[in-house]
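re: ur question from earlier - yeah i can do the single chain one, its not a big deal. heres the input i used so u can compare w yours
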Amino acid sequence: MKKFLFSAAIFATFTIFTACTSDEPPQATAQPAPQEQSETTATTSRADLHGEITVWVRGHLDWGLTGGTPDQPYFDYFQQEFPNLLINEVINRDWHELPAAIAAGDAPDVMFWEGEPPNVFSNMVAQGFLEPLDNFINQDSNFASQFLPGMLEMHRFEGNIYGLPIDVMPNAILLNLDIFDIRNVPHPSPDWTIEQMVELSQQLTNKSDPASPTVGIVRNIEEQDYVRMINFFFQAHGVQGYREENGVRISNLSEDANAITAIQQYLAVQGNNFANTFSQDERISLGLDTSVWNIDWPAGVGAMFVGAGPWGIYVDEQGAPLFNQMVMPPPVGSGGRGNYVAIIGKSMFAGSNNKELAWEYMKAMTSRDFRENAFTTVNGERSYPLRFDENTTAFGWGIPAFEIDTNRLQGDFRDWFLGFQAAATFPGITATDPATLLELTRDVDSGARQLVDALREYDDFVNANNLLN
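and the output i got, formated as tokens:
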């Protein structure tokens, strides 16, 4: 059976886009018991905490299940660390349900979320749902220093920090180097350019041989990857997406020559109704399972795959790659490079009556101590599925928000991890209304609209609906 490597982002200037993850939970690997803790003070203070908190979990992701009942992951760990704290977990609850929950008197203390922080926070902050965390953070001089540079700042919205990162899910471009070798195309380096990406997508696509076809770029999650792909081109050309007049942001893609160039290059890669991806008929003729949304990639017929997290890496049960894979950060252009980076994180409900307890829980969940020492049970033995060490064969939901000792990682896994970490260091921008922009680029590709006219229509729509302010 194939094993998928999962991951969990960073600040984006504006977007209404949400990261997607696979339904498969993180792989649990039985590992040696942890070494003696140096955080005896933290452990003692946790034992002194008495009370009860309610945690909402978005969806059914195992990352959010933190020991409310004995059948949940990490139950024993939380009983050990917080013996006098009762954690009531409610799954499949989203912040949109808060008004009804508030009215019913059953709102949470902590909320689990996924996505780009500014997008996640915008509506919740406007409705007064989130508690600013700056005062809590400032009480602990060592807390902020554990995170990678910028990790907390990406959770700042309108002057305040409203969340903490559990996992970082950067958008990266995965390469199937076997396809590069089949087509005699040199492997790119991590400092590759946006022009190289366009050229490679064309060089690596060859459907003329029905027995051994290849494509440069293959599908990801329905249409979301194409919006994320546009982001690479925008950032490489320095496209901000708006201008300011008297403090008001105005969408200006139709006025920006760099935006026009970016879309033109994007269409050169993804045009002709996504010509670099196999059609349904082509998949059937190749004997591929058409019910699998990204079958072109695991089937080994695609050279490049855009994925929001390392879940796209394919390994066998022993952790060996099923084909020769490489992880690349977004390509660079004269305007730099940028990336869609999502976060799995937690925020505190502003109306909580247990804020000190909620903070201690959130602080524990986002700590290096939790990543290293949170355990669950597999076949009667302790397992530490969130560690990154020499025994690791699969990612958790994402990569940590802080430095780890990569010397503990094995060859391929270390290279993949460093690739995703690099991809997380280029926070970028995505379209304000990605669905509208994507539809308009299709019209341009089909000849139904001229590019400038389509971008002008997009600007008018964004400005008329005040989507930037």
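DSSP finds 15 helices and 16 strands in the chain. not sure if urs matches, ping me
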